[in-house]
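Most newcomers find our protein records easier to grasp once they have seen one. A record pairs a protein's sequence with a compact description of its fold. An example says more than a description, so a record of this kind follows:
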Amino acid sequence: MFGMGIPELLIILAIVLLLFGPKRIKSLGSDLGSAIKGFRSAVKEDENKPSVESNSNANDKVIEGELNKQKEQTKQDNNV
């Protein structure tokens, strides 16, 4: 329906080249590449982080263990 062939793409490329110039297009390409690289590294870093849910489960277990220790200490104090 809206197919673009090689002649249309060449016309668009020529217009972009005239508007921005070769130096500006090169810097835009490198900026775009570094932005994509940064995005990918952020996604990988986010995947390596432990999730909030698993972190909260670990905290719950620590709190539960502390409560059990306090209960046992209270029982021992009452028995003495």
